[in-house]
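Backbone-to-sequence.
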């Protein structure tokens, strides 16, 4: 009894010890768990509304019949058109949410996300280049995007390395690469076929139009294959959040851990970009919302994934119906929300810097 009391008293505030069998146990943040359940419930409600609402309204009962495989007259509308598109939105949003959380953790900067530091632009540049030269299969584009994102991230990481990874340098060099890669994208758009360029422009805004199961498969497989590394990443965030001296004193190979977290984040962001285009600001918003809602020291990856999925599905629902029958790309809605939030973060950062005296030259 005394041993159990000591263990309970030494747990961090807000955490519970969960036993996974006889040999293993893990810490669970209570508020993060409640937040995850609430987000899952909100996502389920939005998904039901997504499948019901459209040019033709489908009753919730008919939607459930289709999902359960029962005979229904709405099989074409729900099962063929709406369900695959919604599934792609869920997977893409979850991937962007996790990727943004990991990269922000490594950079220790809320401004660091794949669409800010050049990863999405690298994925976009190689993908648009491939489309210009005739590769238009959405089954292949996620893998092309992954290669482009990894190459861009490797270059940013290489140029930011000075005996270690400096967070501020990493973000600034990433922004520089993002600008350069946007110029390359424009070069491909102006030099390619007109129809291909128009298709690429729609893709570059971030769009789920005509999204099918072929787009969902690469993202789903990537998330499945990275399940174990993501469990490691959730724990590794705690050591990366420490200052360098403390982490090194604890025996943490900090540069390797940072490299692993960045690699996972880049792969997820790149595959998601290939499936739906660079849906801007989801990777920026989702981790911040999840962290503030759960009130955790590190980004809760499950909450971040659910928040990202909720943002994308809700934004696409609004994009389909706000100006019906015209459908907007989902990236237009996320940019309309994310851009003001980015400006707020910049202004807030400058205000904090001025209060601490860092803004004086």
């Amino acid at each position: 009894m005394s041993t159990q009391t000591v263990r309970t008293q030494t747990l961090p505030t807000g955490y519970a010890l969960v036993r996974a069998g006889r040999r293993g146990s893990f810490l669970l943040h209570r508020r993060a768990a409640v937040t995850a359940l609430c987000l899952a419930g909100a996502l389920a409600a939005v998904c039901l509304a997504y499948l019901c609402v459209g040019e033709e309204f489908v009753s919730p009962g008919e939607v459930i019949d289709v999902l359960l495989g029962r005979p229904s007259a709405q099989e074409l509308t729900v099962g063929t058109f709406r369900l695959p598109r919604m599934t792609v939105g869920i997977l893409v949003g979850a991937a962007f949410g996790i990727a943004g959380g990991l990269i922000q953790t490594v950079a220790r900067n809320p401004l660091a996300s794949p669409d800010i530091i050049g990863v999405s632009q690298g994925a976009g540049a190689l993908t648009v280049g491939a489309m210009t030269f005739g590769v238009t299969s959405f089954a292949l584009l996620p893998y092309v995007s992954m290669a482009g994102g990894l190459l861009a991230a490797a270059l940013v990481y290489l140029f930011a390395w000075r005996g270690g990874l400096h967070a501020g340098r990493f973000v600034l060099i990433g922004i520089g690469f993002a600008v350069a890669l946007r110029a390359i994208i424009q070069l491909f758009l102006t030099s390619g076929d007109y129809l291909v360029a128009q298709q690429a422009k729609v893709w570059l805004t971030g769009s789920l139009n005509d999204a099918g199961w072929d787009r969902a498969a690469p993202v789903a497989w990537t998330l499945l294959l990275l399940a174990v590394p993501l469990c490691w990443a959730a724990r590794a965030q705690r050591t990366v959040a420490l200052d360098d001296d403390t982490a090194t004193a604890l025996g943490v190979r900090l540069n390797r851990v940072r490299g692993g977290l960045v690699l996972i984040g880049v792969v997820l962001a790149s595959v998601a970009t290939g499936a739906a285009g660079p849906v801007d600001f989801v990777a920026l918003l989702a981790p911040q919302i999840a962290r503030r809602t759960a009130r955790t020291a590190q980004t809760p990856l499950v909450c971040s994934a659910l928040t990202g999925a909720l943002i994308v599905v809700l934004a696409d629902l609004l994009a389909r119906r706000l100006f019906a029958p015209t459908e907007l790309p989902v990236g237009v809605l996320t940019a309309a929300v994310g851009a003001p939030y980015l400006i707020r973060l910049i202004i807030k950062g400058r205000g904090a810097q001025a209060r601490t005296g860092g803004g004086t030259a």
